[in-house]
Fold these 2 entries.
Entry 1:
Amino acid sequence: MNTMRIANRRDFLKKALTGAAVLQAGGGAGLFATAEQGAAPAKSRVVIAHDALLRGTGSTVDSSRMLSLLDRAMQALFDRDRPVEAWRKLVRPGESVGLKVNALGGRGISTNLQLVEAICERLQEAGIKAGDIVVWDRDSDELERVGFHLATGGNRVQCFGTDRVDYEQELVAHGSVGSRLSKILTQRSKLLINLPVLKDHDGAGVTIALKNMYGVIHNPNKYHPNGCDPYVADLNMLPEIRTRMRLTVCDATTAMYEGGPAYKPEHSWKNNALLISQDPVALDYTGWQIIERKRAEMGLKTLEAEGRAPCYIATAADAQHRLGTNDPKRISIVEV
Amino acid sequence: MLCEQDVQDGKSLDLRGERGSLGRRSFLKCALASGAVLGVSELSPPAAAISSEAMQQKQDDAQFTVEAKFYQKLPSLKIKCKLCPRECAVGDRERGYCGVRENRGGTYYTLVHSRVCAAHVDPIEKKPLFHYLPGSLAFSLATAGCNVNCKFCQNWDISQSRPEQIPADYVPPRRVAELAKQYSCPTIAYTYSEPVIFSEFLMDAADAGHEAGIRSIVVSNGYMQEEALRAAYGKMDAVKIDLKAFSESYYRNVVAGQLKPVLESLATLKKMGKWTEIVYLVVPTLNDGDDEFRGLAQWIKANLGADVPLHFTQYHPQYLLKNLPITPVPTLERAKAIADTEGLHYVYIGNVPGHPAQNTYCPQCRKLLVERVGFTASRMLIGKDSSCPSCHHPIPGVWHA
């Protein structure tokens, strides 16, 4: 782990010296992809991929349409003609990949199985062994409740919660945050793909990419005061998270504009979309605006008017954090 | 030095032996070292760790889950916790700040009733309570969780964790009382983590203890709502409050709490007639100013009286606050001198073994009344009439069972 950290730092310094890593939005999240691209994009790209027919005539997401939706999104994000080329921008054979899902909302609003299956399929095509992929959240029971089948060992995609392996004994700290990290993150995920959902949160305003990292630590309950600000930003600054984060794929197939974080069917809508970015701040900002638009459509006040605007997003973008950008002028939204 | 770290709040002991043998070894080492120094006091036999076998086997989570006592139901399956001043508004399937209370479908539950993650037999001086049954033993226990997040916490591994992250044993209230009796402890002490957050268990254990002739004491931050405090700590026979500082900024930045409610709790305890002692952990540069010591002493004298024991204790780097040195002894002596000057009668210095300010002296004739070495009262001269044997000045406290 230390070796990897040093290598990343060297890469960064090298690029900084040559001017290639000028404030690459997404901070360390996109180091690998950026290195191959050769130059950092001027704007952070957030791809919103829609498919009105994602569920066909039923309520369940169609697997093949989900795969197709994911492909369109990834190709648009990385400007590639073939899906596998896009994934090869992110991963290399031999790497272990953690897929951090969000299973707190039960079957109503959690990361879709079909999305996870699609990502696993493409990762394997890109050269990642099935056994090197781990689908995880904090608790195995919650994963099962959503419909994931737990799997440990063997040459298949792994799936279990931190409860199975515990948290590191050592405390890590940044700013206001001091926590123990999931061993799945530290020991099983050389790189991390974040798979949050898009929903309202009664305390934080919204919970999307950045806040999904609360599922990585042993004491998330300590970091909910003050709308989770600056805790969310500080947490995402931890090197163990920041250096691993490569991509966020937000499952916005079902989204919630009010009443979160627990699932409230009366406040959810079938959005049939994915949001993808290497900049978690830009993605969170974009997701927040989607929720605000839905709130306006439903005749609700803005989150700011309710006194719960997600201020942590701006904190994540500030000079002390630089985890990405929340400036709409520096966000390029690509709809496919 | 490890022993000294343990002095602060007491070191938790893994009942199931799964959190590493170091804790157990270090605890026993402390106990043995203490005994060696003291020559094993007549008043206080060496502390003993409770073996895991003495407890029942761990049960499933349902056994620890009991509806909470202090909360208010809100629309949309939300609740508002009324246990501490934080008043967490908790949505369905969410937990409060303490991490040990969960909203399940609009009903709030404690997840730590009878869920004991640490238990020791400690000298009562370790709490510290200096004016309450000196030389006696306290059957001391804790569950996971805390309603603040002190950056210097000695027991953060249990206080800042969720209950399911820590090995624990099912020890229901009657069993607690039985164990206290079995280990010849006249009191049960709720300590180590933060008893506010296991109030329901504490109340039931205190009732079970009283039925068996065992008293109860609590070591707490006092960050609690008045109704809950009256209900829960009303069942206590003595209380020790950790007053972390005498400034709101320190409470906000270092403790993640508030000073005002703690002062209100102290005043309430006074009204309730509870025997109360105060500990003030002196952290270099953060809460060690003369004005702060003076303000603290003046507030105590004005609101609680000059007879409330005040313990200035030594900080050791821990948890998230490791960049400061151990509190110099002269700083503690300066704090004591200021409090003495302000007219407090019983000001102690803690975590400094062998310091003369660990002893109790008569405020009138200055004669030695209780001599302490380490955690042990090695000489106790206060008579049955709770007065100084030399000048007969009444000495406040509970000196004899």
Entry 2:
Amino acid sequence: MSAGSEIVLEARNITKRFPGVVANENVSLKLHRGEVLALLGENGAGKTTLMNILYGMYHQDSGEVLIRGEPVRISGPSDSIRRGIGMVHQHFMLVPVFTVAENIILGAETGNGPFLDLNIARQQIRELSQQYNLAVDPDAYVKDLSVGQQQRVEIIKALYRKADILILDEPTAVLTPQETEELFAIIRSLTARGASVIFISHKLKEVLAIADRIMVLRRGRVVGETTPREATERSLAEMMVGRSVMLEVEKGEAHPGAPVLTLDHVTVLDDRGQHAVNEVSLEVHAGEILGIAGVQGNGQTELVEAITGLRPVRSGRVLINGRNVTNASPRRISETGCAHVPEDRQEDGLVLTYSVADNLVLNTYYMPPFAHGIVRDDRAILDHASQLIERYDVRTPSPLTPVSALSGGNKQKVIIARELSREGRLLIAAQPTRGIDVGSIEFIHQQIVAERDRGAAVLLVSAELDEIMALSDRIAVMYHGKIVATLPAASATREELGLLMAGAQPTNVSHEAVTDGRVTVNAQR
Amino acid sequence: MERAESQSPPRMDRRIQIWGMARAAIVPIASVVVALVIGAAIIALSGANPLVAYSALFEGGLGSGRAFSRTLEKATPLIFGGLAVSLAFKCGLFNIGAQGQLLLGAVFAAFIGFSLQGLPSALHIPLALLVGALLGALWAAIAGALKAFTGAHEVITTIMLNFVAFNLTDWLADGPWKDRTPGNIVARTPAVAPEARLPDIAGAPLGIILAVLAAIAVWWLIWRTTIGFELRTVGQNASAAKYAGISVRRMTVLAMVASGFLAGLGGAVETLGVVGRFQPGFNVGLGFNAITIALLARTNPVAVIPASLLIGMMQAGASRMQFNSGVASEIIDVILALILFFVAADSIIRRVLRLRAEEGERVTLSSGWGS
Amino acid sequence: MQITGSMARPAAARIPWLAIGAWGALAILVLIAYMRAPQATTAVLTSTIRQSTPIILGALAGIMCERSGVINIGIEGMMLISAFLGFLFNVWTGDLLLATLGALLIGAVVGAFHALMAITLKVDQIIAGTVINILAVGTTGYFYQQGLTTRGKLTPVSIPFLADIPVIGPVFFSNPPITYASLILIIVIHVLLFRTAWGLRTRAVGEHPAAADTVGIAVNRVRYINVIIGGMLAGLAGAFLTLESVGSFERNMTNGRGFVSLAVMIFGKWTPFGAWGGSLLFGFANALQSQIQFLKNQLPPWLAWIGDLPPQFIGMLPYVLTIAVLAGFVGRARPPAAIGKVYEKE
């Protein structure tokens, strides 16, 4: 892990403003040959903006960039590519309906004259595959590949263009712990061959595992530079957030009662007609939180959609309080007392152009007092909104403000306010704190636990293992559409869960009873 | 003050409400002015005097009591058409089929009008209007159902249905419903019974009164009812609508049905109030004019009225303009196209007038063919 | 953990049995008809190819635009304006070639206008197309004077030897120039889209513009160029109508062909050869309409009722067919993923 002293990439005093926000302010960094530099920060800290500037997608307002000691003005991605910079974006930049080879040569097409010749490309791809141990099939369609495979395609795409400076933006967000280890192996082999890597992440454990040096950004500024030897998770978290961050979710003992949600051999198909959920059976009791752990893409999304009536159930039964609601309409399911905090809050949970007030009655607008018959009662809707805004501390200039003007955390609070204020018997929360600032996360976690303590049954689905481990009373692991294990949360370990999430069988699975609920959470969203 | 797409103007602050309305009207008014200027340039280019042309236009539309009646007459179907398109827009649907729906409404209203004799007005008129409106609704429902159940995009299906409607009503007027009175060879239906003709009420034609009432009813439906909320939600965000328990399919069909109902009603009103029978070649061009009006009014049902009056005035004055200055009346179509352009490309006007775009003011519908 | 990629066969390699079966059955029907009534069959087939020309050109125009992500419902208007101006160029200059080139140029200009509205001004793309359609009707109506006819007309050119092949000969190898051009263009556009770098980039821009942007492709420039090419194709269709088909201009002479082109494009799943199949279908319906009076006597008894249908019903046929196509076949067709959305960097 030793790095050379040559500085291959340097940024000096980069500042970039967008309307209303300073994304980067006087940011400077140096990248040495063969080193892995980790860039750490919360969502919105400015990491991606900085990388987009280095890659040529944006231009900085002031400051300069030096590549191999030479000041350069990067005009666009083709320019940075030419200079040897390659970027693997957080959301993959691959055309799903193209093959691997087509994606890799896009923009750098091989062939005679205007015509395409993929054979040359195939050859080169195979060579790179072998050289770096990145197995891909050049003729496979990207849409048929797993996430890990797609990431490998992205890396080859960069290597194909002779990149020796690689920027990886949140590469482990969608990988299992085991796939993450594989990625780290790939990174080490790349740096051994002289490539330099910038690794952007918000995951403290991984940063400590892979980086040679660590830089922390907060609100657009560099707030610290350190190495894994000197830093700990706690010190990094504090730098990221700016204050002491050990959150304790006050969780008393769970008193589970009768089953509220029962799934009986439920099978659900995904958009392509494949089995996304494969004969899943589970039970969530009143007064308990059942957390579903698993890497995204193993059927959790489809499971939640099926329970809430947004996706057809192919076979099996869904029961809420004993009543069969399989394939019932979303409205009927909601009326049985099921509250749903959806995974995609902007798409499904809110109408961005509507006011906060209207969003707060989005699924109750037809009931009295908000409407009498078909006539709406604007006054009642506004009063309701004012009450909820205060109770749930939603920061908004007015109940009539369009909800698009609110921050991510406050948008989510609107949804939480709406769903939790209905005092239902079942709460389904999917990725409830994704991309949200720490203060709001705290609040939302408290609300979820409060629901449990009120006697509601809570089904929590999250890709953040720490969140699952902190909040759940029991944890079910989902892999390839099946529940592979259900464990009490108190005794479950990260390693165990990681293995289960990757479809492997852990050797020691301990099943001790839940004794004490005090759990520590690292604030590292 | 930022205004959300969902609230009708808050009753709390009248001043802000009026200022908001004025602001919303700036771009449409500026679009009309610029279009008229360009129109004048085209007129000048083809050798005529724009000032003479325009003054004749205004005179022909507003210059006398009779001119104003003509304007109201022209404006009436435009209001119905504009309402039809606006309502569909609110649900995210592009109803270019107002033309065909209007034709169906007109021919069937004529049928009820001429085939029943001796009915008192109080029965005959509502019956004929209702049948016309329902046929328009039915015609639009075809496109709505196709969209809801097969995903067929309503832009093409409604345009195709327009052509089918032309042919169908042509055939009806030339075949089974042809006016067989001796001496008539033209393809047209018999005249409707005198009891079915729309009277004037307190000096104003019943048609325009119905149109204004329809505008108010549509406004109320959209902003004050749960149905309106459901329509708008589907138009703004179909997946959130699903989550909210709203059936997107049902709303799609409902929006088209309501839209077609209005267009059909417009055709029926025109037939019973102005023409007195059905004749092919009936109000060609309403379909696209309705779109222009809907956008000029920013899909606000009440604003459809002044927009329709403006365009109705131009249409009413066109023949006088042609007579006085020799300028072909098609120039009105060109001006209307330009108005549509400037309203749709509002960034141009905004840049010129240095206005910032407000959230929720832009009308966007296209998200692709399938969804 | 080694996970190998799936071995899905590329779409081109999967053999379309259904299509082959359908075309085969059709070919047999045509042969039978030819043996019973050679002249009538030839007349209908020839008319089919000719009538389908503007439609396939319009569909190709649509394909170029939409493959790069821009919805274009203004093809009807583009055809109309090009038809009108091509006609005027011919009347002024007396030259058919110049007039055709003029129509192409106008098509390109209107295409550029659509691109300007859709890409730069960020106007809703369907409204942009509607603007073009209304403008076309208005301006051509305003400037049109009656009684003008073209000086000369583009007449059929027979290719020696090939034109003598029975059945196929007169139908495919004895056509006027623009019709030939349209057949060649089907192949050209197919190769362009699927076998060249330009085509790869175009399709990438239509499916995932951000991905194209990150590898250095100028997304909006690609879109502009494709839309302008589309405009030129629509312009050629317009030239066909006035200079090759009718020989003069009439108001609204496009008569919905531009919209039928869109249906055909969807029917053909945004591929040139697929669209050709659809355009032949509509060409056939149009051919039937124009040939029906001559065919009446030659129809076998069980088809004789066709001759007695009111003309309006036959006139409706293409449009009803379009609706059926959209409702029945389109269910599973997938347009380019990024279509209709303005591309802006995040």
